[in-house]
Specification:
It comes from Flagellimonas olearia. This is YtxH domain-containing protein. The protein has 99 residues and is mainly α. The protein has one helix and no strands.
Amino acid sequence: MKKVFITVMALSLSMSVLTSCKDASEKAKDASEEATEALEDAGESLEDAAKDAGDAIKDAGEEVQELGEKALDSIKKAGEDAMDKTKEAAKKAIDSVKI
């Protein structure tokens, strides 16, 4: 009877350990799936962020180009104005020398 009791106890313990291992395996599998999903989501977020950064850089580049063109136009206009004033001053100087 004692041997039967020990055998039953050993079987019960074995079943308990087996059930615990099976539960741990399932939990590990679930955790692995959740981690995979989280990594996929993070990858998508990083991809979106990279696209947004690229768009922002493109927009900034276009704005810088526009500002550069405006600056060149301003410099050209200032140069033309300076030339006009220089021509007028030279004309006045020539006219004053002729008199």
